[in-house]
Amino acid sequence: MLQSPVEFFRTLPKKVCPECGEKVFEQAESYLMECDRCLSKKEE
């Protein structure tokens, strides 16, 4: 039986930053992998 698309996206695990392990706050059109804190460290 196929799962509905809504149920599929609702059950996806939260994205986790590979640098520090914190959950990443996602926005609809964002493809970033790191959290804001780790991204700001890279800019310094």
Automatic annotation (TrEMBL):
<protein>
    <submittedName>
        <fullName>YhfH family protein</fullName>
    </submittedName>
</protein>
<dbReference type="InterPro" id="IPR025432">
    <property type="entry name" value="YhfH-like"/>
</dbReference>
<dbReference type="Pfam" id="PF14149">
    <property type="entry name" value="YhfH"/>
</dbReference>
